[in-house]
Fold:
Amino acid sequence: MHVMYFTEQPMSAYPADIGLEFGATALMFSNKYYDPVAGSRLYNEYLEQYIYAEEMGVEGFMLNEHHNAPFCMQAKCNIFAAILAAVTKKAKIVLLGNPLPLAENPVRLAEELAMIDMISRGRLVSGFVRGGGQEQLANGVSPAYNRERFEEAHDLVVAAWTRQGPFRWEGTHYQHRVVNPWAVPLQKPYPRVWIPGVLSKETIIWAAKQRYPYIALNTSIEATKTIWKLYDEVAREVGYEAGPQNRGYLQQVHVSDSEEKAEKNARQFLWMQGEFTGLAHPVWSNPAGYFSPDFRRQFVEFAVGRAESPRGRPTFETQVADGRVIYGTPKTVIPKMRRILEETRPSIYGLWGNDGNVSNEDARTCIRLLGQEVMPAMREIGKELGLTDPFEADAPVHLRYSTDLKQMPQAAE
Amino acid sequence: MATGTDWTRSEVEVAGGKLHVARAGSGRPVLVLHHDIGSPDQLEFYDALASRFDVIVPHHPGYGKSERPQWLRSVRDVAVIYQSLLSDLGIERASLVGLGFGGWIAAEMATMAPTAHHRLVLVGAMGLKPPEGDILDQAIISYLDYAHAGFHDQAAFAHIYGDVSTDQLVDWDICREMCFRIAWKPYMYSQTLPHLLGGVKVPALVVWGDDDQIVPRSAGELYAAALPKARFEIVRASGHCIDMEQPAALARLVSSFIAEN
Structure:
């Protein structure tokens, strides 16, 4: 069982009332409300929290990035990854991840990741994402080629990591007449790649075909089971039996030394999802061409206010009831974690501990209790349930390195 | 909208993809190129032109009922497809009438074949970086808000679209996706087109609504200045979609211009 600590790194020091009045705060909410003095303090607090998490026994730092939004102030996950690579010793640096379609030069991305892998002495897990709809607009990248760019940039990054240069790349979206980066990953054949996601079945199918672990981002237990059903079917089609080592989960879980304080802080998980400000603008979060054509009718109706978001906007109570939000003291939290582990059987587990305006002191208490009490219990439960993680299982980094395929894969990439 | 005009609709294969083409009337051939939000099948403006000319109204490749060419990457590609369409249909000396986004395509066609066409009409045309203001970015507003923004008087919008159905929204989304595939960056203009307009030999009519909130009038003035034989006209009480908002006034302007020798 591989357990990681995660925070969205909320830029909480902004006028929430003005944000609420403006509505959706991702993309167009003016950065005149951004306070770099508070930003400087928060970046350093979050770095200190990650470093503290390793001291408390966390095995992985999960990092992500978003753009133009107060809910996540990390604009480039490689920056934090590079710092943590230098100042920490043991924990894996898990990027979930770099938004590939936003890369105009995937070779440069491959170089950055190779440097992080070498500086960290082989601790990089290099997850990749499509990026949210707003991210495409914030970076001026056409949403209509999002998936094509995701797949081609992935292929180019992996080629830059694994093929001896110089070579030439003449793709649809990327053309590089000389690919020969003098920074290659320490880990062979290449750093593990994990793919996080929420809704798009295309991403689940793609991840399963690569044999990359899929990390379900805070989905309900039922939704998670649906994801594994699809993943397992695709895995069988390409010749392997998927198991816990292919399954990851990100969980909102806040632990404190009292139930009352835990609940109060856990409510901060919804600080951006309706209670404080609306997060996803129906148009900006779903630009044409970005979402799956299967959902076209639902998304156009959502865009003009005729329907709820197909992604849903559940209340705090609903999320507590269906297992998406867990809070309490270690004693009350551990049985709730057991239920998720038993029902969905992931071996990779991200603990999203703190959000919104949780104080630095409470965040550190949460990290201490997670690291010292909750995680050891989870590891025990993991052993009992046979939740072997990709490192323990020495799982192949990609389908092509499999030695156990039941048939030859066809068009796996 | 019931009309007396008899339109024939057919599929024409160009560059490996099927184009949906509507055609009616007789006389001088007129190719009408629709907006970025596609086009209703029936419009008073189309019928008015068809009462005097041989009018051809294709759906742009990837828009409406035309197949999407996956390879299509630029508006100039669309212009080449339409040059092929005219050739395949055996049409010579066509007049080009471009509406908004379609105006950009028409302008590209005119630069490709400077003497081949009879007349060039650009109505609220995209395609140039406006010297003042910007072309409205549909990526950050809803399908409905964008379509409404094309009209000065919302009663005219209601006359055309009525209560907008979900099917219509889906059609607009497909159009929008195509715009993002071929005109994303720079958004809705070409950096090279202004340098090529000087070679266009045919007379041009540039028409703008006096309340165009999609394409600033400065872009129209630039077209009129860059095209050697251009006239600039303003239509009063109209937004960007003059063809839908002031169809009779636009048809009069365009018809008399095309009828010239």
The interface with chain B takes residues 27-28, 137, 140, 142-145, 282-284, 287-289, 296-297, 299-301, 303-306 of chain A (CB under 8 Å). Chain A has a mean pLDDT of 93.
